[in-house]
Amino acid sequence: MNLFALVLLSRAVYSLMWFFIAPVLPAVLRDFEVDPAQAGLLPAVFIIGAAATQIPASYLGALYGHDKVAGLGMIIFGASSILLGLSPGWIWLLLFRALGGVGAGLFFSTAGGVLVALRPNAVGSALGWYNASFNIGAFAGYYWGFVAAVLGWRAALAAPGALSIALGILLLRGRGLRSPASISRGAVAYGLASFPFWGAVYAANNLTATWLHLFRNLSEGVAGAISSAAMVSGFFGGLLGRLYDRLRRKYVLLLGAPLVSTLVYLAIPGAPLWTAPLLVFLYGMSFNAYITSVYAAASRRAENPASALAIINIVNMALGLHFSYAFSWLMTQSPEYPWHMLSLLTFISALSTYIVANRLKIY
């Protein structure tokens, strides 16, 4: 298997292990007799582990090879997945999930840096396929509860770990793609411009199903299926990345995509129910077009593309995660309010990106 395909396959397995916890979490809480109020600790410790290692990973990748550090990340992530299935209690589960975050942090930016190095003249397309692979794995993760229903939650969590370790070993045996050991400070501007949109999509992806269940009276299964349309839209990431590469005026995607989502979010509360899958698909598609463009623009300007990706992702996570809490609270006030907030956030990203694009002369 060539290195480009190996990274994309690894990315899909990586994203599966990001999302496979959610559908099995109720069973985990029951078995360990844990208060549901503590459920949020599991994704929290994972994000902390991932955020803590991304910038060190980009530096280590520059010194020793981005493919090798990405391989180490997949091995750690896979081992943590197996350990999740062997956890004797809730505290151990939290520790192993935090370890998984460390592995995920080592993989994300370095694997992206490998693709940029392999396709220097088609960065948008390369990162578009990278995002598409993430969505394919995430889509499988949304339905991992069906696997758990057959195998049990322990085996379901452990199963992808062996594949992750195998892929990690293959990456470790790679050529050792290096770059200058620099930190891309200019990527901070991209992170600050994109975090409102990132936070809006993160909130929508996590809570659209709940909103549809509560306010459109859909069953949980149907609501979940509709919300997964956002992930289906990501399958077209490679095509969107190719569009970015071919466009002379890059700001068409950088500005147009968040403006599309601004309108979609405004439309969702009052739109006929039959349009919900299409609207969810559109906000997912527009985000994939946008974030691929942001990643490509930042990577092209950076001596160490992995550091640019790491910084953008850290800023997005640190500042964007909290909008989910606001979405939940606003649902208790009015069905329309959370969507108005998301619309405002994406509009802010459009304005911020316009400022960054002009300042950095991205035309």
Automatic annotation (TrEMBL):
<feature type="transmembrane region" description="Helical">
    <location>
        <begin position="224"/>
        <end position="244"/>
    </location>
</feature>
<feature type="domain" description="Major facilitator superfamily (MFS) profile">
    <location>
        <begin position="3"/>
        <end position="363"/>
    </location>
</feature>
<keyword id="KW-1003">Cell membrane</keyword>
<dbReference type="InterPro" id="IPR036259">
    <property type="entry name" value="MFS_trans_sf"/>
</dbReference>
<feature type="transmembrane region" description="Helical">
    <location>
        <begin position="184"/>
        <end position="204"/>
    </location>
</feature>
<feature type="transmembrane region" description="Helical">
    <location>
        <begin position="337"/>
        <end position="357"/>
    </location>
</feature>
<protein>
    <submittedName>
        <fullName>Transport protein, conjectural</fullName>
    </submittedName>
</protein>
<dbReference type="InterPro" id="IPR011701">
    <property type="entry name" value="MFS"/>
</dbReference>
<keyword id="KW-0812">Transmembrane</keyword>
<feature type="transmembrane region" description="Helical">
    <location>
        <begin position="69"/>
        <end position="92"/>
    </location>
</feature>
<feature type="transmembrane region" description="Helical">
    <location>
        <begin position="127"/>
        <end position="145"/>
    </location>
</feature>
<dbReference type="InterPro" id="IPR020846">
    <property type="entry name" value="MFS_dom"/>
</dbReference>
<feature type="transmembrane region" description="Helical">
    <location>
        <begin position="12"/>
        <end position="29"/>
    </location>
</feature>
<keyword id="KW-0472">Membrane</keyword>
<feature type="transmembrane region" description="Helical">
    <location>
        <begin position="274"/>
        <end position="298"/>
    </location>
</feature>
<feature type="transmembrane region" description="Helical">
    <location>
        <begin position="41"/>
        <end position="62"/>
    </location>
</feature>
<feature type="transmembrane region" description="Helical">
    <location>
        <begin position="151"/>
        <end position="172"/>
    </location>
</feature>
<feature type="transmembrane region" description="Helical">
    <location>
        <begin position="251"/>
        <end position="268"/>
    </location>
</feature>
<keyword id="KW-1133">Transmembrane helix</keyword>
<feature type="transmembrane region" description="Helical">
    <location>
        <begin position="310"/>
        <end position="331"/>
    </location>
</feature>
<dbReference type="GO" id="GO:0022857">
    <property type="term" value="F:transmembrane transporter activity"/>
</dbReference>
<dbReference type="GO" id="GO:0005886">
    <property type="term" value="C:plasma membrane"/>
</dbReference>
<feature type="transmembrane region" description="Helical">
    <location>
        <begin position="98"/>
        <end position="118"/>
    </location>
</feature>
<dbReference type="Pfam" id="PF07690">
    <property type="entry name" value="MFS_1"/>
</dbReference>
<keyword id="KW-0813">Transport</keyword>
